C-alpha cells in the first residue's frame, strides 16, 4: 500500500468519525445560576457583584426551602413564604453561533417574571404557569466575552393562589440556537384526523421563519420513525419571503400504525429538516402518537373506536417535599402508583402542567384534560375562604392580568402541547361561576331565593327551569359576562387546535347550561354535581356531560357505571397537595388517594377495587366509637350513625387504621374494600361471618367484633383474593427499601427510600412512631424527608423525620459524580442495614 492510498484511507476514517455538524443546539440551561431572595437594586446590570449569592440549579422553588410559618404566609398557600427573588447566569456564546438565531425558553416561572440579557430588558410574563421564550440574538456577545441573563420573580403577593404554587424558576429552561431560516418555538403541529388499523393519515403543519434580508427557497423534508425505523416521508419546496414567516402543510400516510392507547402508549418520532440552497440549516424532532377518540352524548367516550370509562384524578402541580420543582422521577413514582389503581386519566388542576409532566403522561398512557385557568376577571377570595386576615394586595393574583394576557396565555398552552397524544381536551376554566353573583343567587340553593333546607350537593334544582331563567334575567347585570368570556377563550383555543374538544368545570350548571356558557363548550364538565346528571340530560339532551371534579367515594363512581352518557369522572384528588388549608398546623389537603409522600391511602384501595377487574381485598379498622357506624343488634349489622352518611360524604376518607393493634375487648369496626361478591372474615383462623358486597350500599363490607390479638384475614368466598392484618409487637427493626438499584450521574435522577417500622417478626408497626435519622454518604443531593401527614410541618430539607403510621420517606438526587450512595437509618435504639445505590 503506497503512502498516498494510506493517507486517503486515514482521511476517510477521520471523516467518518468526525462529529456531525449540528444545525440546531438545544442546551440544558438549568445549571450554574446564582440566586438571591430579596429585591436588589440594579440586579439586571452586568457590573453587579453576585459572588455572595447562592449557587442554585433549576428547576428551583425557593418557598419550599423555608420553614412552615404563620408569619407573612397563610393556609391557602401552605404556610410557606413568597417574596421577590433574583436569578443570574453568565454564559459564553461560541463564534459558531454568529449569524444564527438564539432564544431562551422558559417552561414556567412563578410568578410575574421579568427578564434581561446583558442589561437589555426583554419583557415580562405575569402568568406563573405560562411557557414563554425571548429572542436573545440582537444582544449577545460571542467568543470570549461573557453574557448575563437576569430574571426577577415577584411573588410578594404571597396569598395569590388557593393552593401552593411555589416560587421561582420552577420548570426547565433551554437555550436554543438554529439557522436564520428556522422552525420557531412550537413550530410543528401534528394531528391524526384519520386512523384505522390499516392506515393513518398524519397531518403536519410546519411554521417557517426567515430572518434574512432576502427571500429564500426552502426544501422541507419530514420523516416519521417508529422504534428508529423510518415509516413515512414527504418533501416540499417553497419560497419563504424575507423577514417573514409562513406555514407549510404536509401529509403522510402510515400503514398498519401502532396505535397509542392507555395500555400500549406507542409513540412515533417526527423529524423535520430545513434545507436552504442544498444546505441543512435547521432540524426539529417531535414526539407524537397515532390515535383517534370521540365523546358521544349518549354513549360516552371512545378511544380508537373502543368504548371506555375515564377513571380520572385531578392533580395539582406540587410534588410534596420537592414543592413545585418536581424531578421527573418523583412524578414517575406517583403516576405509576395511580396507574396500578386503575387510573387512566388526569386533569391538570387548575393550570397548565409542565411539558415534562405531559411527556410522562404520553409515555405511561394517561389521558389528559389540560386546564388553563382557575380565575378569569373576578378573583376567588383567598381571605374569607381560608380564614386569612390580610390586605387585598397580598391576595392579588392572575385576575389583574387576565384581560390583557388571557389570549396569549391560553394559545401558548395549546401551541406548546398540541402534539401530546395524551391530551384529549382543553379546559378553559375551573368553577368560574363562583365569582359571578348572578349565577349562584338565582338557583334556589342560596340566598334570598333559597327553598327550604335544600342541599346543593345532593338535591336537584329546587326551582323550575323557567323560574331560574327568570331570576337570572332580572338579576343586576355584571361588569363581565361569563358566557362572553367563555366564547372568546374557546375561540382562541380553536384558532390553534380544532382536533380536540373544549370543556370547563362548571360548578353551577343549573344556570350555565342556558346562560350561554355551556354553549361555548364541546363537553360540559360538572363539578360535584352527580345529583343533577339526569336533570342535565333531560333538559339538555344534545349536550355531552362529564364529571370533571368528584369525591373519592363510591357514590360518585356509581352513576358512571349506571349511566352510559357519563363517560367518567376526575376525583378530587389523586394525590394530597399543599395549600387550601383552613387551620394551622395543617399544610394542605388530605383528599388524595396518595398522601403527601406518595404512600397509598385507604381511599386508594377503594378505587383500586372499583377500577380493576383483578380480584382485590383490603382491610381497614377503627374503634367502633370513632367509626361512622353503630351496631344494630336487631339486624345483626353495622349501620350508619347518621342517616345517609355514606352517600353524603365529601372530601377525604373516614378516619381508619391500617393495623390490628387495640386493647383486648375493644369493639372494632372492620371495613373491607373489595370487588368480590362475598367476603368471609377470620380472626385467628376462626370465621367471624360472611357478608355480601351487594348488601352494602356504600360498597364497603363491614364487620364488628371484639378485639383479640392475632391475625385478621378477609377472604373472597368464591375467589383467590385475600388480605391479612397481624398484631404488631414493639418496633424492633427499621425496614429500609430503595426504589432504584442504580441511577445516572446526571444531576436529575432520584431515589426514593421508604422506611417502615417492623417488629421482631417483620410485621409492619403502624401504631408506634419514632424519630428517624438518615446517614447519607456518596454522590447525592438531599432533596428532603416527609412522612405523608397533612399535619407534618417540619422542614422538608432535613435528614431527620418522625414517622407517621410507622413510615417515612427520604428522597435523594444524583449529582454529576459517579460512585455509590450509601444510606442507613437509625433511631435512639434501632439501626437499619445499609443500602447501596450505584451511580453510573
Automatic annotation (TrEMBL):
| Domain of life according to the entry | Bacteria
- Entry's PROSITE patterns? PROKAR_LIPOPROTEIN
- Glycoside hydrolase family 2 immunoglobulin-like beta-sandwich domain: from which residue to which, for each copy? 191-291
UniProt domain Glycoside hydrolase family 2 catalytic: residue ranges: 298-432
Repressor among keywords: no
Q: Name one Pfam family in it.
A: DUF4982
Domain spans labelled DUF4982: 665-719
Keyword terms of this UniProt record? Glycosidase, Hydrolase
Specify the Glycosyl hydrolases family 2 sugar binding domain's residue ranges.
Answer: 83-177
TM annotation in the entry:
none
- Residues covered by the Glycoside hydrolase family domain: 734-835
Q: Which residues form a coiled coil?
A: none
Q: Which family does it belong to?
A: Belongs to the glycosyl hydrolase 2 family.
PANTHER family attached to this UniProt entry: BETA-GALACTOSIDASE (PTHR42732), BETA-MANNOSIDASE (PTHR42732:SF1)
- How is this protein named in the record? DUF4982 domain-containing protein
Amino acid at each position: 500500500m503506497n503512502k498516498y492510498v494510506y493517507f486517503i484511507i486515514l482521511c476517510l476514517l477521520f471523516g467518518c468519525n468526525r462529529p456531525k455538524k449540528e444545525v440546531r443546539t438545544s442546551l440544558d440551561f438549568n445549571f450554574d445560576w446564582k440566586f438571591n431572595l430579596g429585591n436588589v437594586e440594579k440586579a439586571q446590570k452586568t457590573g453587579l457583584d453576585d459572588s455572595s449569592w447562592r449557587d442554585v440549579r433549576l428547576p428551583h422553588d425557593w418557598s419550599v426551602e423555608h420553614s412552615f410559618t404563620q408569619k407573612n404566609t397563610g393556609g391557602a398557600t401552605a404556610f410557606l413564604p413568597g417574596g421577590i427573588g433574583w436569578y443570574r447566569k453568565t454564559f459564553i456564546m461560541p463564534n459558531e453561533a454568529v449569524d444564527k438565531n438564539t432564544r431562551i425558553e422558559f417552561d414556567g416561572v412563578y410568578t410575574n417574571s421579568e427578564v434581561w440579557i446583558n442589561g437589555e430588558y426583554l419583557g415580562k410574563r405575569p402568568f406563573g404557569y405560562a411557557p414563554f421564550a425571548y429572542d436573545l440574538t440582537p444582544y449577545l456577545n460571542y467568543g470570549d466575552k461573557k453574557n448575563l441573563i437576569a430574571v426577577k420573580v415577584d411573588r410578594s403577593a404571597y396569598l395569590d393562589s388557593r393552593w401552593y404554587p411555589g416560587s421561582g424558576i420552577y420548570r426547565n429552561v433551554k437555550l436554543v440556537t438554529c439557522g436564520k431560516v428556522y422552525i420557531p418555538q412550537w413550530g410543528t403541529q401534528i394531528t391524526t384526523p384519520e386512523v384505522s388499523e390499516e392506515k393513518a393519515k398524519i397531518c403536519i403543519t410546519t411554521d417557517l421563519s426567515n430572518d434574512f434580508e432576502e427571500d429564500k427557497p426552502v426544501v422541507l423534508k419530514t420523516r416519521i420513525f417508529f422504534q428508529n425505523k423510518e415509516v413515512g416521508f414527504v418533501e416540499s419546496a417553497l419560497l419563504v419571503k424575507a423577514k417573514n414567516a409562513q406555514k407549510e402543510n404536509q401529509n403522510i400516510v402510515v400503514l398498519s400504525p401502532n396505535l397509542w392507547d392507555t395500555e400500549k402508549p406507542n409513540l412515533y418520532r417526527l423529524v423535520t429538516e430545513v434545507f436552504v440552497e442544498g444546505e441543512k440549516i435547521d432540524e426539529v424532532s417531535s414526539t407524537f402518537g397515532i390515535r383517534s377518540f370521540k365523546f358521544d352524548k349518549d354513549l360516552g367516550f371512545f378511544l380508537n373506536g373502543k368504548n371506555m370509562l375515564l377513571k380520572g384524578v385531578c392533580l395539582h402541580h406540587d410534588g410534596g417535599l420537592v414543592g413545585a420543582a418536581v424531578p421527573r422521577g418523583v412524578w414517575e413514582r406517583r403516576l405509576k402508583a395511580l396507574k396500578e389503581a386503575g387510573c387512566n386519566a388526569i386533569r391538570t388542576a387548575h393550570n397548565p402542567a409542565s411539558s415534562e409532566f405531559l411527556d410522562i403522561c404520553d409515555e405511561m398512557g394517561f389521558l389528559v384534560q389540560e386546564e388553563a385557568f382557575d380565575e378569569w376577571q373576578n378573583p376567588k377570595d383567598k381571605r374569607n375562604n381560608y380564614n386569612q386576615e390580610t390586605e387585598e394586595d397580598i391576595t392579588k393574583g392572575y385576575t389583574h392580568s387576565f384581560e390583557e394576557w388571557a389570549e396569549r396565555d391560553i394559545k401558548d398552552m395549546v401551541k406548546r402541547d398540541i402534539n401530546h397524544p395524551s391530551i384529549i381536551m382543553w379546559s378553559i376554566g375551573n368553577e368560574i361561576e363562583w365569582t359571578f353573583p348572578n349565577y349562584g343567587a338565582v338557583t334556589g340553593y342560596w340566598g334570598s331565593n333559597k327553598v327550604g333546607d335544600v342541599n346543593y350537593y345532593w338535591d336537584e334544582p329546587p326551582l323550575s327551569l323557567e323560574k331560574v331563567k327568570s331570576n337570572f334575567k332580572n338579576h343586576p347585570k355584571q361588569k363581565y359576562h361569563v358566557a362572553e368570556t367563555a366564547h372568546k377563550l374557546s375561540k382562541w383555543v380553536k384558532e390553534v387546535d380544532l382536533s380536540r374538544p373544549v370543556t370547563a368545570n362548571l360548578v353551577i350548571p343549573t344556570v350555565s347550561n342556558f346562560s350561554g356558557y355551556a354553549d361555548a363548550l364541546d363537553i360540559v364538565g360538572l363539578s360535584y354535581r352527580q345529583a343533577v346528571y339526569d336533570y342535565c340530560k333531560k333538559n339538555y339532551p344534545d349536550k355531552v356531560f362529564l364529571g370533571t371534579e368528584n369525591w373519592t367515594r363510591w357514590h360518585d363512581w356509581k352513576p358512571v357505571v349506571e349511566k352510559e352518557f357519563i363517560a367518567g369522572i376526575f376525583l378530587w384528588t389523586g394525590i394530597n397537595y399543599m395549600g387550601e388549608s383552613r387551620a394551622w398546623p395543617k399544610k394542605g389537603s388530605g383528599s388524595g388517594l396518595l398522601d403527601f409522600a406518595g404512600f397509598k391511602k385507604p381511599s386508594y384501595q377503594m378505587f383500586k377495587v372499583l377500577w380493576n377487574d383483578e380480584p382485590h381485598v383490603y382491610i381497614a379498622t377503627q374503634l367502633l366509637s370513632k367509626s361512622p357506624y353503630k351496631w344494630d343488634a336487631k339486624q345483626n349489622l353495622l349501620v350508619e350513625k347518621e342517616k345517609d352518611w355514606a352517600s353524603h360524604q365529601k372530601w377525604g376518607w373516614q378516619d381508619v387504621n391500617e393495623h390490628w393493634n387495640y386493647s383486648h375487648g375493644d369493639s372494632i369496626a372492620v371495613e373491607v374494600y373489595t370487588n368480590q361478591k362475598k367476603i368471609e372474615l377470620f380472626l385467628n383462623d376462626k370465621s367471624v361471618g360472611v357478608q355480601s358486597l351487594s348488601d352494602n350500599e356504600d360498597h364497603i363490607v363491614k364487620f364488628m367484633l371484639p378485639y383479640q390479638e392475632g391475625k385478621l384475614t378477609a377472604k373472597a368466598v368464591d375467589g383467590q383474593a385475600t388480605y391479612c392484618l397481624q398484631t404488631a409487637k414493639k418496633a424492633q427493626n427499621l425496614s429500609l427499601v430503595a426504589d432504584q438499584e442504580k441511577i445516572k450521574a446526571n444531576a436529575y435522577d432520584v431515589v426514593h427510600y421508604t422506611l417502615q417500622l417492623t417488629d421482631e417478626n417483620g410485621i409492619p408497626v403502624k401504631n408506634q412512631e419514632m424519630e428517624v435519622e438518615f446517614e447519607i454518604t456518596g454522590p447525592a443531593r438531599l432533596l428532603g424527608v416527609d412522612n405523608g401527614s397533612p399535619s407534618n410541618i417540619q422542614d422538608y430539607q432535613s435528614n431527620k423525620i418522625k414517622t407517621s403510621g410507622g413510615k417515612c420517606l427520604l428522597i435523594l438526587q444524583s449529582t454529576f459524580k459517579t460512585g455509590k450512595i450509601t444510606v442507613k437509618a437509625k433511631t435512639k435504639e434501632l439501626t437499619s442495614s445499609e443500602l447501596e445505590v450505584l451511580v453510573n
